[in-house]
Structure formats: C-alpha cells, structure tokens
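Lab meeting notes turned into a lecture example. A postdoc, R.K., suggested we walk through two folding results consecutively so the class can see how the record format repeats. The first protein's sequence and structure tokens come next.
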Amino acid sequence: MPNVIVQQLPKDPEATRELVRRITDAFVDAYRTPADAVHVWIEEYPANRYAVAGKLVADK
C-alpha cells in the first residue's frame, strides 16, 4: 500500500481535499493500485514553525 506524507502550511480544507484526491488518482494511474490502498497523511505546520532561507515564513 502506498503511504504519502504531505507537510505544508495550513491550507483551505477544500484545497486539501483536492490535493488528496489528485495524489490518490496519481497512484491509481501510475501503479494500478486500488484507491482504498492509498493512504495520505497531511501534516500542517503554522507559519511560525516553518522557515525558508533562514527566515520564518511568518516573518516574511
């Protein structure tokens, strides 16, 4: 069973639903795996706990 972990800043729930659907579809198409075998975890981190180029995203 494919396991996918997505780490991201918080997103709109509808956008997250769409992402999960597309990830699942990609595994179904590429690996011919059943959709119910694809597991997707969404880990969201607030902007004050995520940094790019040495700066917190919250400070940009």
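The second example is placed directly after the first for contrast:
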Amino acid sequence: MRALTWQGTEKVSVETVPDPTIQLPTDAIVRITSTAICGSDLHLYRVLGPYIDKGDVLGHEPMGIVEAVGSAVTNLKVGDRVVVPFNISCGHCYMCQRGLQSQCETTQVTEYGSGAALFGYTKMYGQVPGGQAEYLRVPHADYGPIVIPDDGTPDDRWLFMSDIIPTAWQAVQYADVPEGGTLAVLGLGPVGQFAARIGKHLGYRVLAVDPEQVRRDLGSKHGIETYDLTKDVVAELVDRTDGRGPDGVVDAVGMEAHGNAVAGFAQRAAGLLPDALAQKAIETAGIDRLAALHAAIDLVRRGGTVSLSGVYGGMADPMPMMTLFDKQITVREGQCNVRRWVDDLLPLVSDPSDPLGTLDLTSHRVSLEDAPHMYEVFQKKQDGCVKVVLDPAMAAGSPVAA
C-alpha cells in the first residue's frame, strides 16, 4: 500500500509499504477514505524526530470502511463505515472504565512512562503505524472505532470525531466556564476553531486570538469575537471582560507558539542532535515556547481555569508559580479521552444543521501522494491553509482547494 512516512526533520514522503494484516483477534483492517493532517503532526515534522524512525507511518485522524475483522470483534462487520479515534484504548481497564481512555492501562507505553498508545505517533506513544495511508490496522477494534451512517454524507461531517472535535470538547469542558460566562481561546487552528464554536454553542461569550486573518475570519463567521495577536492583546481582552479576564481560557496552541526565539532555537537544536542526546534534552530541559500558556495565565480571571489542549513536550519548562498561586488558577490538561465524549458529540455532528460547522473547516482536500507538499503548506500557514484532508483515492496533483 501507499503511506506517508517520516524520513527526517521536516522531510516526509509517500512510499510503498507492506499492507497491514490481522495480528490479534481484536484487530480490524480499515480501508482509509479520508485522513487529516493534525497540528500535532507538525511537532513530529519539526521537533520530535528523535523519537521516530525513518519509514514510520504517520497520521492519527482517519476514517474509512472495514475490510476485515479478527475473530473476537463482534461490534463491527466488513463494510461498516467507521471513524477511528486517535488513542488506542481497550474499554475495560481501570482507566477506561473511568472515562480516561487516554490513560488506558492495556496500551500504556510503560517504557517511556507514557499514557495510552496513539496511532502514528513516536516511540513515546507506542510507534503504532498511522492512518495517513491506504489501509490501517486497528488494535482493540472491539472497542475503539465509531460506526457512522453509510448514507452518502461527506466524510468531513464525521472525520474530525477522530481527534479534533472531541479534543476541543474536552478542552471546553475542562475550562469550567459557568453558565453564561466568558471563554477565551488562544489559537484558531483546527482545535481552536472547534473549541470556540463549541463554547458559542454552549451559550458562552467567546473571545479568540490568532495572528492569521484567514483564521480570524473563519471564527468570526461563527459569531466569535476575534482579535489579532499583538503585544497588548491580553490587556485588551481583560479590559473587555470588566477588568477581570475571562472565566476560562483554552490554550489551543501548545509547544510551538509564537513569541520566544530562544525556545524556538532550542527546539530546532534538539531536533538536530543524535537521537539519544536529543531525547535526553527533551526529557530534561524546557524546550517549549510558552508564550501562549503564559498569556493564558495572565489573561484568565482570578479563580478561573486554564485548559490546555495544545501539546507540550518539555520536562523543565519554567512556570509562573507565584502568579498561579496568587490568582488561584486551576490548570487542566491532557490527551483527549475520545471515547468518553462520543455520546455527547454524535448528536451534534449528525445534526443536518451542522451546528459546529464541520463542513467548513477543511481548506484543502488533496491526494495522499500530495501530502509531503501539504505538510509544508500547513506548517507555514500558506495558501489560507486551516485544515488538510488527504484522500487516498484521489489522483495526485488534483486541485487543492476544498
């Protein structure tokens, strides 16, 4: 089959690799019909290469058609249309039973002290071949995949249930905004877009910050109050919330935020070291650009909550502990527990009125073969790029606008 593979820092390519097969009775094989490039894939593209091997298949936002099932899989049948959550969880362990599927004890990567295994994501999370490919082996298919209607609705209505809609929903839930309160969202990439729209759907006043005009325009389309990223934006938003700040802030940016050239240099330097040295640097140093996180802490009102959905990777990042303590701020974070939120989200996603705007997020739909070029476009925010969806059935070189 053809699959998008990691070849080095800021270098990916589509290669022919062996087709996946059923290895365990709880496996399924899914033929991929749509698979997205996620913002966290860009961390692999640029920063986290020391934890990836050349030839690893990337991607963790897939959906498609079930082609084969193992003997222990009774909830799926060949021909089912499914969305595959990005984290791999068993559904029956202590953590899964408590709605913490991202901490699944069956798939935890104990070698690195990490949580549940993820598709297409580094040795720290299991090094499981990902979904930017023609086919995907799905472990624990007796629990994970979400069966959706095979009714002719476009994949984009459902695809984002694999990651970014549940991630945004969890981020907003963790922000703990009171009824009728104010939510701020830092970053209007794909997760930030959905977090802002979810906040609006739940009746909050939503303020969102992003440096890209095209992303602010997309947020404004959904009734979000949007602001450019300026040095005074925190003061402006505090002023617009009666001098207190919003009740909750979602940081939807993460480790590669704008605003810290030193940390940016540290990220690039770590990515160029031999793997063993780079891993040590990442695991013991503060390599994250913390501009978005520190802005969230400054922005949120006293007694409010900062919710982190952006990925951070440094183990010694400096934190303003005095401010956190003095302002009595709650901080919540973590990989999304996708399966926990499915019952809450499926009615919204399946609603013909599309209240979350799932059908207007994709800016580029391209062939799998065009994925290497689109990684660069997405990273550099070129061509109005907000979200890239790869279609393995599409011919290479097809028009890229969605």
